[in-house]
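To the wet lab folks,

You asked to see what we're planning to order before we commit. Fair enough. Below is the target structure as tokens, and below that is the sequence we designed to fit it. If anything looks off to you, flag it before the synthesis order goes out.
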């Protein structure tokens, strides 16, 4: 994208990128993703493709033409013929009107001859016209001139040899055919030798037909490996204009925008259809091209070229990142600086990255909120830290389980990761709350024993019922509910096991005793709020 994309240096870089089949093929070889050697390359078995000329029968109409010294110059907008192409020109030449007393000679049942001084020699098929002899009007079906004498074919003419008759030729036009090589003058004009044609301008209309040739690979696999409009631009410049890339940027853009190039591309597409390779047309239209900023001005908004790869979908995040990095190295080495690479797997890769980012943000935010709530409710930073540590360990256990059970980060898994802290916090908070209210005169072991006596059975029973309820989600047909059920089972299982087997021993080892970890100003504030609320209740009693 951007201005200056088609500088002469960038033109050669883009052509080189399209033609560096072997180098780009090494990306797939390096990744070991190819079942067959030819699948590792962008074009062909070893990056070498045999080319052949494939002809397409092309026709260009012209409305007028002029003749000078036996050469006709045809005015045919966007005719598409290159210099040197062999064409057949059929042009309609009006016969100058003849009228008056004519002496016929060489009379047969269907023909007669009359002198026509000044008319150029030549033969052709009469496509329209009549001759009126005395009172009778007869269709003219043939007319040729040689040495100032016209031979007229008109069945039933009734003319006798040597007879002088009053005759009038009405709108006789000849169709004359010439076959020779073309000289291209410009996009709208070409010339061809037409010996015997009379000099003059506005000499009539007609049609030029001939073959134009396109470079086509003999191996279909070679052709479908890459889609690059720059190769078509190079071929058009060489075969039709007699030029070559690179050329000045504005000249190239003008060529690509020209109706002549557009018609040439249409002929190329028709040729592919004629040889049974319609897919080349469809894929070429989708996978390479130019988007113009303005329909009238040759100003590029963006352009794209494409290559076939050997990756399969869907890709894991690791495979997607490797694929991106491999092709990114190719882009930096071979493509212009303005180029970017895109591929269908990158869409999901980007989604995965955003989902992971959102999940991590959700987990960190939830852990911070859980710590703050524990701090406010217990007024003890050591207990809050123990809770934060235990909840973090539960979250890490679940994260470690994801690759073990074959999950990949998708939309569902991202939702689960955001919710994992919420499911993990219950049993941890219950046990720590009971620990905190066990009494200041007890040591760590006694306080934890109190907490387990008070809440151990309750939290275990809650975990069992939650796991049991979530297990029934496995009978659902919707994948989300099945995954959600597994998520609940695993998180609750980790939460209860970590609370009983990790948090409890940890609190017995490093939990606060007495007033350790207490936050005095929070206690005063929280206790003051409780005392105020209790006093209000007492005052409200009758």
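Sequence we intend to order:
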């Amino acid at each position: 994208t951007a201005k200056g994309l088609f500088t002469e240096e960038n033109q050669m870089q883009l052509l080189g990128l399209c033609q560096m089949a072997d180098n780009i093929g090494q990306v797939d070889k390096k990744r070991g993703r190819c079942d067959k050697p030819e699948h590792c390359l962008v074009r062909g078995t070893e990056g070498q493709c045999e080319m052949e000329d494939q002809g397409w029968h092309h026709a260009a109409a012209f409305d007028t033409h002029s003749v000078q010294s036996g050469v006709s110059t045809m005015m045919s907008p966007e005719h598409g013929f290159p210099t040197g192409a062999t064409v057949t020109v059929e042009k309609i030449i009006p016969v100058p009107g003849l009228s008056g007393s004519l002496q016929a000679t060489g009379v047969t049942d269907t023909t007669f001859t009359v002198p026509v001084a000044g008319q150029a020699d030549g033969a052709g098929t009469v496509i329209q016209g009549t001759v009126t002899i005395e009172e009778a009007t007869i269709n003219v079906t043939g007319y040729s001139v040689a040495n100032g004498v016209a031979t007229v074919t008109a069945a039933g003419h009734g003319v006798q040899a040597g007879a002088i008759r009053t005759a009038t030729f009405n709108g006789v036009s000849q169709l004359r055919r010439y076959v020779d090589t073309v000289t291209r003058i410009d996009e709208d004009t070409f010339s061809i030798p037409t010996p015997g044609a009379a000099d003059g301008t506005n000499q009539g209309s007609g049609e030029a037909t001939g073959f134009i040739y396109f470079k086509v690979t003999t191996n279909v696999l070679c052709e479908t490996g890459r889609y690059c409009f720059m190769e078509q631009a190079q071929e058009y410049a060489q075969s039709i204009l007699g030029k070559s890339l690179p050329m000045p940027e504005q000249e190239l853009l003008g060529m690509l925008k020209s109706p002549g190039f557009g018609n040439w591309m249409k002929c190329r597409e028709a040729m592919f259809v004629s040889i049974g390779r319609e897919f080349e047309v469809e894929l070429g239209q989708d996978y390479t091209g130019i988007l113009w900023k303005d329909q009238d001005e040759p100003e590029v908004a963006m352009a794209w070229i494409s290559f076939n790869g050997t990756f399969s979908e869907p890709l894991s995040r690791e495979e997607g990142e490797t694929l991106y990095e491999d092709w990114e190295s190719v882009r930096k080495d071979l493509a212009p600086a303005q180029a970017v690479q895109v591929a269908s797997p990158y869409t999901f890769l980007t989604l995965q990255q955003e989902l992971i980012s959102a999940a991590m943000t959700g987990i960190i935010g939830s852990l911070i909120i859980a710590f703050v709530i524990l701090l406010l409710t217990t007024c003890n930073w050591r207990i809050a830290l123990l809770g934060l540590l235990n909840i973090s360990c539960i979250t890490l256990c679940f994260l470690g389980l994801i690759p073990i059970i074959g999950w990949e980060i998708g939309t569902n898994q991202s939702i689960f990761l955001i919710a994992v802290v919420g499911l993990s916090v219950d049993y941890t908070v219950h046990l720590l709350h009971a620990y905190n209210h066990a009494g200041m005169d007890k040591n760590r072991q006694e306080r934890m024993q109190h907490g387990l006596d008070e809440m151990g059975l309750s939290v275990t029973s809650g975990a069992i019922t939650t796991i049991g309820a979530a297990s029934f989600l496995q009978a659902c047909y919707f994948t989300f509910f099945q995954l959600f059920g597994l998520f609940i089972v695993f998180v609750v299982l980790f939460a209860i096991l970590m609370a009983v087997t990790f948090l409890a021993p940890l609190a017995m080892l490093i939990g606060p005793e007495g007033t350790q970890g207490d936050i005095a100003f929070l206690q005063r504030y929280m206790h003051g709020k409780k005392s105020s609320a209790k006093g209000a209740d007492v005052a409200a009693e009758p």
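Structural context that might help your review: Residues 22-47, 530-542 have pLDDT under 50 and may be disordered. DSSP finds 14 helices and 18 strands in the chain.

Thanks,
Computational group
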